[in-house]
Automatic annotation (TrEMBL):
PANTHER family: CARBOXYPHOSPHONOENOLPYRUVATE PHOSPHONOMUTASE-LIKE PROTEIN (AFU_ORTHOLOGUE AFUA_5G07230) (PTHR42905:SF16), PHOSPHOENOLPYRUVATE CARBOXYLASE (PTHR42905). This is 2-methylisocitrate lyase. One of its GO terms (molecular function) is lyase activity. Gene3D superfamilies: Phosphoenolpyruvate-binding domains. It comes from Capsulimonas corticalis. It comes from the Bacteria. It holds the Pfam family PEP_mutase. Keywords: Lyase.
Length: 283
């Protein structure tokens, strides 16, 4: 059983996990059950997934889910595990409003989470947010967390590699410049998703003056290979949530088309095992 830690202690621990000696592997949970399963597997910290939570509550991804519903699921995740939890808050549910983003972060802190993932796509997703505005968001978030006495771990995400209108060479240069600017503004880590070739990952790790977070994708280097390239944090996004949805779809197809039950009766967690995840002795 993991020792009970205060919120401040969890934040300190999460920050320390970015410093090694091993790469930080963060699974992304979409509800309390997935969070407990990840914790039981031995992960030292857990992240939420905006896409997975949105899907679980009946919304598409992309800041469509109401802030309060996202925070409800975050509260359930934090309350169900003992390890530090960092929250995917997309662009902060505030578009270009710093005040709205701060409202989101207050909710994250109130939920007991100790980190955030903040992306820099402008509303609509077709362009990057203004770098000055994004830096201001990071500075004000840092100041807010400091007033609460929580060393919140800010993972500053830049989505430049998702934009088809920019050349590969320019993407790399701009990702490094944005990442370092975010670090200078108070971020603890820089998240550059949608990159999986080793030369680019290595260049990012060398150019960004702080921990680099990479998203695991089909064809991505393994965890050990990413560690060797200088990556300090790897996350999996909505992949496990979509895998669970895919399994449920196969269950549905078997039940509907064949009238048989093997998909959900063979080699699956028993009722007792599932119930045991949530007994008071375990969390």
């Amino acid at each position: 059983m993991t020792e009970l830690l205060s919120q401040e202690e969890k934040a300190i621990l999460l920050r320390q996990l970015h410093q090694g000696p091993k790469i930080l592997v963060l699974p992304n949970a979409w509800d309390a059950a997935s969070a407990r399963i990840f914790e039981e597997a031995g992960f030292g910290a857990i992240a939420s997934t905006s896409a997975g939570i949105a899907f679980a509550l009946g919304y598409p991804d992309g800041q469509v889910i109401p802030r309060d519903e996202m925070l409800f699921m975050l509260r359930r995740i934090v309350a169900t595990v003992r390890v530090p939890v960092t929250a995917d808050i997309e662009a902060g549910y505030g578009a270009d409003s710093v005040d709205e983003v701060l409202t989101t972060v207050r909710g994250v802190l109130a939920a007991g989470a100790v980190g955030i993932n903040l992306e820099d796509l402008a509303e609509g997703g077709a362009a990057l947010a203004d770098a000055d505005l994004q830096s201001e968001k990071i500075r004000t978030i840092r100041a807010l967390a400091d007033t609460h006495g929580i060393p919140l771990v800010i993972n500053a995400r830049t989505d430049i590699f998702s934009l088809a209108s920019i050349s590969a060479e320019e993407k790399l240069d701009r990702a490094i410049r944005r990442g370092n600017r975010y670090l200078d503004s108070g971020a603890d880590c820089v998240f550059v998703p949608f990159v999986k070739d080793e030369p680019t990952i290595s260049a990012l790790a060398q150019g960004i003056r702080g921990p680099l977070n990479i998203l695991a994708l089909p064809g991505s280097p393994s965890v050990s290979e990413l560690e060797a390239l200088g990556v300090r944090r790897v996350s999996v996004g909505g992949g496990p949530a979509r895998a669970a949805m895919s399994f449920t779809r196969s269950v549905a197809a078997e039940l509907h088309d064949l009238g048989t039950y093997t998909r959900f009766t063979e080699q699956v967690m028993t009722y007792a095992e599932a119930n045991q995840l949530f007994t008071k002795n375990n969390f």
